């Protein structure tokens, strides 16, 4: 019998991207089906699901640790399902509890087809890493989070070939300083984390230093525009030595400002602005971005007749 070739898992694809030292993995932040579709259409190699965006869009709340495990998992699973060939890195905050809960998070993200996740050392009542006054769990508690994640991943590997890239994030720079933050990341890597993520470096020098301190471990840059980190381009981040870059706010701010303007305009003038492209393509502009053609083709191929006249 011919051997069935197993397709690569999302995590394998992400591992291959990270392994290519000539490149940086450039991940636009997405937080819902539409933003994910738009990023996929532009052909990015990897997407990033922002927790801040998930919390804002699904709950209408700020990034203060309010999105639960279920909120985050459901969103990540939906986004990962849109295109199985493009890996998704998803925010997993603190892991949502003690080691058993962290393991549950990791198993569920793997089952959902998420390629990578990041876990941090803030307390459960966490906040955006670029706000002041962050509180941390102690080092041992943090490392037990990472250890639990690694144990769960290894179990899933043995049981079903499941995998996930574990990104260790520390928020310790703000309160404990650079050396202790790096120490936490080193211990996380020793515990089996794959990627080092120093949250909120405040200078280019610190960015360069973290890459030098982790020569054998890929380092991730969190490019929060309007955050505490200097605004670096993808090329600049790569030159400094980063191997991954995420842009959590990339889709959020255009939506925030664009929708705000549209709402103000209709309130003030009573008439909605219709762009040239919108006028030309009509409502299909939106549906096409969300895979209208593929749905119609799929339906027809399966013998459906409901959409042959759309
Ligand atoms: C990366 C992050 O965890 C996110 O939720 O996307 C946030 C980003 C943000 O709040 O803008 C963080 O840096 O804490």
Automatic annotation (TrEMBL):
GO MF annotations, alphabetized: methylisocitrate lyase activity
Family label: Belongs to the isocitrate lyase/PEP mutase superfamily.
Catalytic activity: (2S,3R)-3-hydroxybutane-1,2,3-tricarboxylate = pyruvate + succinate
One Pfam match: PEP_mutase
Full protein name: Uncharacterized protein
Gene3D superfamilies from the UniProt entry: Phosphoenolpyruvate-binding domains (3.20.20.60)
Top-level taxonomic group: Eukaryota
